Amino acid sequence: MNTKLKSLRNELTVALALVPAVCGADTLVQGDVSGAWTKANSPYRMIDNCTVSAANTLTIQPGVTVKIDAGYSLNVYGQIIAAGLPADRIIFKSRWPSNYWNQIFIQHGGGADSRFAYCDFSDATNAIYLASSRLYAPMTPEFANCLFSNCLSYCIYGYTHGVDPGTPPSPLNVKVTNSRFQNSANGIGIYALVSGAPNPTIANNIFDTISGTSLRFQVGDYMAGCVPQVFNNLFKQCEAAISTADPYDCQMNNNIFQQCGVAVKESGALSRNVGYNCFFNNQTNFIGYPVAYGTFDDQNRNGTTADAFMNIASDPLFVATNDFHLTANSPCIDAGAPDWALTDMCITNGVSQGNSYPDLGPYGGPHACNWLDDVPKLPVTAFMTQSNGVVALNWGAIPRSTYQVHYLTNFVFTGTNKWTNFPNGLVVAADKPTSVNVPITEGVTQQFFRVQSLGRTPGN
How far apart are alpha carbons 263 and 240 in whole angstroms? Predict the structure, then answer.
């Protein structure tokens, strides 16, 4: 009997010893953090507030899960890079459902900008809080192909504060593309005070089921004039889609507003560049705008009923309730603003369908290509411009794709005189168009240039 009991205890000890290996223990983190958080050591669990100091960088690798205990924050004064992959996303979530963590607070002190790609944020108070001050370096953080859900206050909140009205502005130029915001109180809020200068770019995003405001641009005293770019987004079932006030002067083109309480609300005399959008089945389309906005007594280039600013009020005809690609007969195809910088790049590649003009909504315009896991290498058409003695090479680029500029001094393809990589000619495109200055070499009578697409690096 004693022998059997001893054997049973040994078996139990072995079984218990195996549990950590089978289940995988959390990597506990708190206090100062930097270096790399790896998939091999995932999940990481924040059991207290964590800080990335001004001199450090925290890199979170693809496939990592970060579980944050209730009320805690990740405070970044240096840099954070969290670049996942389409099939290996990075997860930020609470330890327990509806047990809300606080925020990722970012205010870098002169280091490089932070970047998030293919990240999922859920169950936070503010998933991201950006703080820009004249005392620190300008901020240009980027968010691409991210998912924000179940945020109690804002998914992304930005605050920029200058020193006084006479000092240079404090820039906060956040860029948010190809991301989804859903089932949250508010989407993106930007507040500026005393020479704050936020110029965000919000392009090709989906805001779905937002109980408050999807995009809110708020001001304090003495703020510098700012022109947010709001292109090719979908706002569906939001209490308010866009709310703005002077001196913000938003440019809003190629968006779709559907089933919102209020689509666009303005306080002041600016933000009058609201054209080539689709407003369908909203309770109120415009508040604070002249009566010509939303008076649909004109026609756009496609013959669709429109107001004087080419906004239409037709059913966008999505593929399905939760699939926001446009069907072949959608009135939103080729209904966008006649701006070459906004035209579609990926035609019939699972995104844009038109030809000469941008499609409306999240799957139109140059950023639409980045919804694709495999972004195509498209032929490049380049042209030269000259201004104030500076010659620039320009081309229509897919944002976030890489291009190589080559050059030569004649077309005799002998010896070593062949296409050569241009110095500083390896370019990751920020927008369409992208350009590179090409200084003229003294004594050289001819220089020839070409641009080659290298495609997009996974996770970029």
Answer: 6
What six digits make up the tokens of 434? 């992208």
Per the structure, the complete domain to which residue 252 belongs is given by 125-371
- The pLDDT, as a whole number, for residue 193 is 77
Is residue 224 in a domain? Answer: yes
Residues 353 and 388 in one domain: no
Same domain, 129 and 203: yes
Q: How far apart are CA 455 and CA 375, in angstroms?
A: 7
The domain tally of the chain equals 2
Say which CATH number the domain at 395 has: 2.60.40
Asked if 103 and 155 count as a contact pair (C-beta separation under 8 A), the reply is no
pTM score of the predicted model:
0.91
Buried b (16+ CB within 10 A) or exposed e, 113-139: bbbbbbbbbbbbbbbbbbbbbbebbbb
Give whole-number Cα distances, 193 to 7, 95, 116, 380, 447, in Å: 72, 35, 26, 42, 48
The whole-number pLDDT of residue 73 equals: 98
Comparing CA positions, the residue from 403, 407, 404 lying closest to residue 419 is 407
